[in-house]
Write the structure tokens for this entry.
Amino acid sequence: MSVTEIAHLAGVSQATVSKVINEYPSVSQENMRRVREAMDKLNYHPAPRRRKSPLKYGLVAVLALYKPDERDINTNFSLQLNSIAKALRQHGCDLMWARVSDPEDLPNFVRNRKVDGLILVGHQPSEAVLSQINVIPSVWLTSHHEATGEVMLAGNEDVGRLAADYLAGRGHKHLGIVNVMGSNPALDMRFRYFTFIAEQHGCRVSRFESGQPMPQQANVAKEFALIESRMEQQIKRLLAQESRPTGLFIPYDQQVAIVYRVLHRLGIPIDEKLQIIGDTDEKPVLAGLYPRPATINTAPQVMGRHAVEQLMLRLRDGDTDRQVRVVVEPKLVSGDERPTEKP
């Protein structure tokens, strides 16, 4: 009896059948049920086997590779971290995480190479740090400028496309990008595709950006005060235009909430004549906004889970000279819809 016959009867791939036989945890319950039913029908009962664990230390480190003056206020990282921890537990592995700006910040376990692998976050990591960890198997969770290691991507091109399609589909002809939190490869890609797709719809795109990175402040309150101050400057620039944008794409839902606050203070209503879409689906941030704007879910939990599976495959199969890039499809999350009038 062959794996091919089981796969054909179950309606799944041969790889899925192999994963079920070898008890991989990443197979869905539905596919697992179908494969096992096919095995029963074909009277196939594999001998029990023990998979050799690829783990030597039972420890994986998640490293947030940010510059000393950078802080990521996006809550998606905590969702990814929880998903990573859960997936690692299924492999009998523990997690440790650290914020690393320079080699001195590296945990001793990492510096002494007593971890099985690394999951990395950060868009522009220090070369000095990378030189210390490049011999440890790793998976990246973010777009970055280096071309080493496996990469899990949030579908940045599709984020830009979804945002442009959403606004253009509601009749907006002049669109705007508003961002005061600096640039990174992921945002650059989202903005390029947003502009490209918007122009395909016959829309004009204006950009309102501070052009400066966000320095880390002494506390979060001061940091948000700086973001709000910069945002107010950009919103005033936008409102001063004779023909101003009516559909806005604003990365990070925390920026969206600040825009609502600024617009309210300036007496500008958010209605069908001014629509906003964000891009991180941060529900706690959006819950108090009315009308609740549309946003885009980039599936941070899915990315975290698949990062672990990709790392385990790399540990099991050994180093490879081919880079694997896995793109997770983002999805539009509708907001409070109102009857649409042409702007």
Remarks:
- Residues 3-41 form one domain.
